[in-house]
Amino acid sequence: MHKADIGLIGLAVMGENLVMNMESKGFTVAVYNRSVDKVDNFLNGRAQGKNIIGTHSIRALSDSLRRPRKIMLMVKAGQPVDAFIDLVIPCLEPGDILIDGGNSHFPDTIRRTKYAESKGLLYIGAGVSGGEEGALLGPSIMPGGSPAAWEHVGPIFRAIAARTPDGGVCCDWVGRDGAGHFVKMVHNGIEYGDMQLICEAYQLMRELPDLSPDEMHAVFADWNQGELGSYLIEITRDILAVKDADGRPMIDKILDTAGQKGTGKWTGTAALDEGVPLTLISEAVFARCLSAMKDERQAASKILAPPPASPFPKDEAYRAAFIDDLRHALYAAKIVSYAQGYALLCAAARTYGWQLDLGGIALLWRGGCIIRSVFLDKIKEAYDDDPALPNLMLAPFFRDRLAQAQAAWRRVCAAAVQYGVPAPAFLSALSYYDGCRSARLPANLLQAQRDYFGAHTYERVDKARGEFFHTNWTGRGGATQSGTYTV
Q1: What confidence tens digit (pLDDT) does each residue in 20-39 have?
Q2: Per-residue pLDDT tens digits for 43-66
Q3: Fewest CB within a 10 Å sphere: which of 92, 102, 173, 243?
């Protein structure tokens, strides 16, 4: 019997489409699903007549594969992945390769890589972005794990990955153990930030210049032709043009409560662990939490007073100027979102010993994935020019673009505050920018407070860094000092 190039477990939407993608690129794929009727339905449907081998057991799946065996899991993240690993391992031999293509948390991937390697196997944790369409036509793939596995899996992954207009492949090796899933997690965090910023821009246009969905459709269509061009701007443009059966905008029929699957929260938690101020992405996560409080918000809207502001000017020239300001503000805040995400990547690379190619990661995201945009080319150029760049905002292009946008950005944030339109991501991004450009922050007072109530000590501006002091602020304290720590 002809042996398959790769096996896949889990024939849900993503799994099925990845199989179809692999087969279309000339690979023979063996498939298995815990509910075996899905295998039969797939073979008698979309997979009929194609180089796809259906199996009804993990042993049969393993036996259908050429060596080294490559088995990709497309199952729900968490315990199901561990359960399938334990089921698959007895059917494998040393040198065989396990691949997790789900949205697994990177510490789990670190643990699973060690476990698989202890059994003589190789392991890959691959972040896959692009949804159903990306899986079928070409996703962005971010693989990490056992480096020795890449030579065997790389040709398949690179064949099925998205291509950029200039022929770039949106897949390359990221790093050891959990690096691939960490990069995918940060991708998802940036996705949260991008989506929240776009939603705030929509809300500001809706609340202040009072634009209709059709008018906002035209704005986003215009923005998509320029430096804001991206998949998320493109789909926002399309969404705003869709009408319900009664001819009214579909967007106005959708309840304003948002869900989340946890990757944004993981990104925020990782940032806290690393001591990285991931303020914008964290605000995007909390904005979804606030949106879920629909009943509380409706009740509070009848109790809490609105701002005592005069109506937003209706002059057409003023409206047009505000929309242009919003374009600049959105671009500036987007720079901050990516700067924070990349700062987290840098910090994690130091912690876990990953050799991350920061410019290369931008290339992985240029096609197939949800955050694909023209913006990413500029990030690649920034890290090509300075691989040790400490913060993306300091790259000449982004530094200059932030300076150009700053006045408009501040006007938008001021208008949001003045007229009472919530814009946590825009405001958080501006506060981060101002914090980064401040040579002196009020943390000196904070350190004095900590030393006052807890003898936590402080450093002095007239002494060497790393030398700590304590003041007996009340005259009643002793000389005992608390140990110092950093986060």
Answers
A1: 999 999 999 999 999 999 99
A2: 999 999 999 999 999 999 999 999
A3: 243
pLDDT of the residue at 2: 83
Which residue carries 């990661």 as its tokens? Answer: 361
Burial zone of 338 (CB within 10 Å; 0-12 exposed, 13-18 middle, 19+ buried): buried
Q: SS3 string of the chain? A: CCCECEEEECCCHHHHHHHHHHHHCCCCEEEECCCHHHHHHHHHCCCCCCCEEECCCHHHHHHCECCCCEEEECCCCCHHHHHHHHHHHHHCCCCCEEEECCCCCHHHHHHHHHHHHHCCCEEEEEEEECHHHHHHHCCEEEEEECHHHHHHHHHHHHHHCCECCCCCECECCCEECCHHHHHHHHHHHHHHHHHHHHHHHHHHHHHCCCCCHHHHHHHHHHHCCCCCCEHHHHHHHHHHHCECCCCCEHHHHCCCCCCCCCHHHHHHHHHHHHCCCCHHHHHHHHHHHHHCCHHHHHHHHCCCCCCCCCCCCCCHHHHHHHHHHHHHHHHHHHHHHHHHHHHHHHHHHHHHCCCCCHHHHHHHCCCCCCCCECHHHHHHHHHHHCCCCCCHHHCHHHHHHHHHHHHHHHHHHHHHHHHCCCCHHHHHHHHHHHHHCCCCCCHHHHHHHHHHHHCCCECCCCCCCCCCECCCCCCCCCCCCCCCCCC
Task: List pLDDT tens digits, range 118-171.
Answer: 999 999 999 999 888 899 999 999 999 999 999 999 999 999 999 988 888 999
Q: Does 1 score more than 80 pLDDT? A: no
Measured CA distances, 435 to 194, 277, 363, 442 (Å): 21, 10, 29, 10
- Furthest C-alpha separation in the chain: 87
Segment 190-203 mean pLDDT: 97
Please tell me which residue in 184, 334, 378, 380 is annotated as part of the active site.
184
Q: Which of 191, 283, 334, 380 is catalytic?
A: 191
| 184 carries an active-site annotation | yes
Q: How many other C-beta atoms lie within 10 A of the C-beta of residue 334? A: 24
Task: Compute the distance between CA of residue 220 and CA of residue 232 in angstroms, rounded to an integer.
Answer: 10
pLDDT for res 479: 67
296: CB partners within 8 A, 6+ apart: none
Alpha-carbon gap, residue 363 to 366, rounded angstroms: 5
For the cut 90, the answer to whether the pLDDT of residue 297 exceeds it is yes
So what's the pLDDT on residue 487? 46
- CA geometry: angle 304, 305, 307, nearest 5 deg: 135
Average of pLDDT values for 359-367?
A: 92
